[in-house]
Amino acid sequence: MRTQLIIPMQHLMKLLAPYVAEAEQVLEVGCGPGLVSLRLAALHKQAEFTAVDANDRFLEVARENAVFANLVNYGGRFTCDWSHSTRLPFEDDSFDVVFSFCAVPRWSRPAMTIAECARVCRPGGTVIVYDLARDADEGMISFVLQYSAGEADQFMRSLRSGYTVPEMRELLAGLGLDDWSVAREGINLVVSSRPLGVDYAVGDPGIYEDIFTER
């Protein structure tokens, strides 16, 4: 996983924790290597985690990671399968929590995917889409790039493929999801079906210091 995504992943897990703790069924859309779901499954063994992706290579890696996790008896319940994000193969209201992590640039039709996430989430459930914000603070971007040796181009491509806060609000309004929240946190865009608390200030480089500072 790219270094600059480690702290955002940890923050997403913290945001999800209170909802996953009460969930029975959790879905990750665009799971990539499956690391977020696998880590959450190890912490919340009462929940069944389903992860989908349309990239065969990512799914291969996710399945390998699941095998390794089982070898160390992590105890979580995790399955992954192929699915296009615009046509999720699940009934309405199937999941208590639906989330994605840095997958929006890979979605061919983000509006359709978010609509699908809302469709398969149960009433009263939680949807969180966590990604890079194209309108992130320039100083924050420069700070992260200092520690992105060999990965800066890939990071910037992903950033430029993201949404700004106003663009995402407009997209949600077009779906009739005006009551969803959109926040920019550091370099990240957080879309949620419910209000979420944050534990660091927007644009605060301190959220990355733990991973970038030598101890």
Automatic annotation (TrEMBL):
The name this protein goes by in its record: Class I SAM-dependent methyltransferase
Coiled coil: none
Keyword Transferase: yes
Molecular function GO labels: S-adenosylmethionine-dependent methyltransferase activity
Organism superkingdom: Bacteria
Signal peptide stretch: none
Record's keyword terms, sorted: Methyltransferase, Transferase
Taxonomic source organism: Streptomyces lonarensis
Domain Methyltransferase type: 27-129
GO biological process: methylation
